[in-house]
Amino acid sequence: MQLQDILYTQGFGTRRVCAGLVQQGKVQVFKENEPLALVTIAQAAMEFEAPGLRFRVHGTDWPYAEKAYILLNKPAATECSQKPSTYPSIYTLLPAPLRQRPQKGAVQGVQAVGRLDQDTTGMLLLTDDGQFIHRMSSPRHHVPKVYEVTVKHPLDERQVSQLLAGVVLDDDPKPVRAAACEAVSECHLRLTLTEGKYHQVKRMLAAVSNRVEGLHRSQIGGLRLPDALLPGQWHWLDAADLTLIQQPAAC
Question: Where is the chain membrane-spanning (predicted)?
Answer without folding.
Answer: none
